[in-house]
Amino acid sequence: MNSEIRQLQPQQLWNKFADLNAVPRASKKExxxxxxxxxFGENLGLETxxxxxxxxxxxxxxxxxxxxxxxIVMQSHLDMVHQKNKDTDFDFDxxxxxxYVDGDWVRAKGTTLGADNGLGVATIMTILESNDIPHPAIxxxxxxxxxxxxxxxxxxKGGLLSGxxxxxLDTEEDDEIGVGCAGGLDVTARRxxxxxxxxxxxxGYAITINGLQGGHSGMQIHEGLGNANxxxxxxxxDGFENFGLRISEIKGGSLRNAIPRESEAIVAVDANRExxxxxETKALFQTIQAELKTMEPDLELHVSKIETPQTIxxxxxxxxxxxxxxxxxxxxxxxxxxxxxxxxxxxNIAKVVVKDGQIYVGCLTRSSVESSKIDLTNGLRATFxxxxxxxxxxxxxxxxTPNMDSAILKVMTELYExxxxxxxxxxxxxAGLECGILGQNYxxxxxxxxxPTIKGAHSPDERAQISSVQKYWNFVLxxxxxxxxxx
Length: 487
Hints:
There is one protein chain. The chain is 30% helix and 29% strand. By secondary structure, it is an alpha+beta fold. The chain has two domains: 261 residues, 3-Layer(aba) Sandwich (Aminopeptidase); 213 residues, Alpha-Beta Plaits. Strands 9, 11, 13, 15, 16, 18, 19, 20 and 21 form a nine-stranded antiparallel sheet that branches. A six-stranded mixed sheet has the order 1-2-6-3-7-23, covered by helices on one side. A four-stranded antiparallel sheet has the order 4-5-25-24. Strand 18 and strand 19 form a beta hairpin. Helix 1 crosses helix 3, helix 5 packs antiparallel against helix 6 and helix 5 crosses helix 7. The longest helix is centred in the middle third of the chain and has 19 residues. Keywords: Hydrolase. This is Aminoacyl-histidine dipeptidase.
């Protein structure tokens, strides 16, 4: 299936991407891809380093005539988001990604593609392996765990790199040059609850929400995509208010940086009201479908009678929980007042688990303004603490402040205009990039971010545009030739 990918142009890059995608590389499970990358560098006879947290650095001298240019750091992350459709039989721990060509796009069969950030990794590998691409001295930095905490970037110590310019290859629109990004903070709410024996007069039902697009909780948070956890809570709240619905279990969403696509709940309702409950739930769902029909045309609801669950959530806790879930903000909190069209602050209610006497709600809050991030996270904490939850803040990482006087920005902007007869879109993004973190230990490094067009990142709809990869590759080659001389 991946053989057709290896015939695409630029062929060396797509071959490296196919090689990489044969290696399982989930966040926090990067041992195999670290070994793969170290072997790649060592087999080329290049200086290859694994730092104490697992980042891999491969250094390549400048090609002839480029020795006086500024040393560059080319950086991408090794890990990828693992998401699959519910009906896809696939084991991310043992299988490589199965890719196919769909017109001008490369997709994966029912799973995430790994183009985020695998195309960046493949780009750097191609340049490291090449014998005919002019370039200055390169320090290739392959970080780990970008998708679930950026711990690789956080653990990279000062002094390992000497480059004066960093090219981060993790932007997802080929006409965009990134100069800034949002910081983030995980907000996790937990509490214990007493399980009650389900009364004999109640019957069991399973409620399933699926068919949502999902997507990147930073780049796509403003698009009006449905959040399975919020939709499920809306149905549960209505069932509780009108039919005495009681919750036994909930499982919704998975990764902190992915908009949740699916949610499942096991509930109990009064036997003498079950027909009315089913009819009301389906009617409310049709209303939700109508609200989301433009962005979520494949949204589905399944309500099925099952064996009555043995236990249900304590009534008082359930009432507080469903109200807190209703009140907790999901989506855009504030748009930037300084950069038109940029989301400043947002929250993604990413994961909800209710089972065995425990409640877990995981959120990822993003903001390019620290005070606004604190304001929103305090609001979330207050919402969940009012219902008895303990709330923890963790995984705090800084944003990347734009430097509009950047020398490499000027070089790349002029090159883009020469190549395409139009100006690039110079912008900050609402995603989390590693530049802000890396800048803490390398404050003098001039940083920029760019990449090919990738759609649907963090979801099984992820796809990379073939023509865009060719455009991006040509841009990379021109940038390497135009790196300024050392000061």
